[in-house]
Amino acid sequence: MLRKLIMLVVVVAVFSAGVSALEWEAIDWGQDVVLNPSTGLPSIVFYVTLEYSGSPNSYDFEGGWKAYEIVNGQQIELSISPASAFLRGEKLRIYTATSQIPIEEGKSYKATFALEDTVNNLSYERSFSYNAGGTVLPYGISLQGWDGSDDIDLSKLPDEELEELAVLHSQIKRFVESPEPQTLTAFLRGDAAARPDTAILLNGSIDDGEEVDRCTYTACGAGCCSTCIEHEEEEEEEEEEDPSEEPAPDVKIECIMYEGEHFEEDGNEYVQLKNYGDLAQDLLGWTLYNKNKRQHTFTFTESFMLEPEMSVRIYTNEEYAGEDDFFFGLEESLWTNVIQYPLSLVLIPVPPNISAPAGSPITFSVTLTLYTYFIETQGDIGSIQNELAQFEQEFSGYIYAGSESSILGGSKTLFVHELAWQVLEAASREIRNR
Question: Is residue 181 within 8 Å of 400, Cβ to Cβ?
């Protein structure tokens, strides 16, 4: 939760202007699973945002939050410290949330919110429930003063937690490790932020056609048709044509609309071809394909004349193609958005000052996937960086790439913190000794 929370108190505010009958509208509500940076344990926060339809002359609140843990079908009320804030913009909003409620895998939790504005005769109620069963949650491992310089002793770790770490270690070992370590920031700004994809256009089939054009693009934002890196370079180096030469068709990949309606199911993404030349070109037999997914190709099986300055689109999914368009006939995404696969981050948050007084544990947080992010837009990368900023440190580690789905949420690309890898190796050794 990145919002600043302020304790909710009973407030009476008086304004000079009158106001008509007011209403409340809930514009946002839900729950977030967060990691407590102090304990290394998972918690849940329930929240609601209410918006006034106008500006109240005054208001007076009664009610608030209650939270419960469900044990054998019975509700056990939890001690919480709710917090709220007034958000002032075009309309007055009230953001209110529970405090962090520690949660455990396999257990269920409930929260209720009831609030009245007695001055304006407004009321609002909502119930929330959360079941942590089947969810991979981060857990804490207390390590007495370990700073990463020596081997770590996991002999006192329970079998269940030790086995999870050992399984994670064996899974990652099947992946391909990057030759050099790098920082997490560099990874998010590099590999994850700008993985290029390439479309290739042939004047025949893949077997016997000649390459007419290729477009290597980098996903750079939503709602735009990505131009090609090669085309931009060609424009810079463009020379004047010899007027005595015979004009010729010049068909190129004009742009790629790589971001459709749903990530991994971008049926309405498309590639747009354009004839930049002065002569019409028959595209019969021409082929378009993704260099990274060569098994998916589109070939013009009938005569199609692309006139000068004319464009044509080849959609991924037939459903979105217009009468004059073509399509690959695929339901899944073909062109890369930002990152081709989900990204898993395996991290151990280490306090800035790693030393600790004698007998005082340092809490490291380890799990199968401590953080798993599905990066769909550039904005997601910024959100990840903001969340990790709470640890006030930089993470350095190796990048692991795999080609098969695994217990890691199907992830194909992982960033593994160097200290996390030491813990995983130690867990693998310890499980063999038991």
Answer: no
In terms of domains, do 368 and 428 share one? yes
Residue that finishes a domain, picked among 131, 150, 180: 131
Q: Tell me how far apart the alpha carbons of residues 141 and 362 are, in angstroms, rounded to a whole number.
A: 8
Which amino acid does the sequence have at 430? E
On whether residue 8 sits in a domain, the answer given is no
Query: Considering only CA atoms, which of 269, 249, 265, 217 is closest in space to residue 374?
Result: 265
Looking at the structure of the chain, the number of domains it has is 3
Q: Which of 304, 327, 350 is the last residue of a domain?
A: 327
pTM of the predicted structure, to 2 decimals: 0.42
| 114: exposed, middle or buried (Cβ count in 10 Å: 0-12, 13-18, 19+) | middle
Residue entry with tokens 């069963």: 133
pLDDT in tens, 80-131: 999 888 887 788 899 999 998 988 777 899 999 999 999 999 999 999 999 8
CA distance 188 to 199: 24
Residue 201: name the closest of 108, 278, 299 by CA.
Answer: 299
152, two tokens: 């770590």
Q: Which of 267, 374, 263, 390 is nearest to 329 (CA)?
A: 267
Same domain, 308 and 429: no
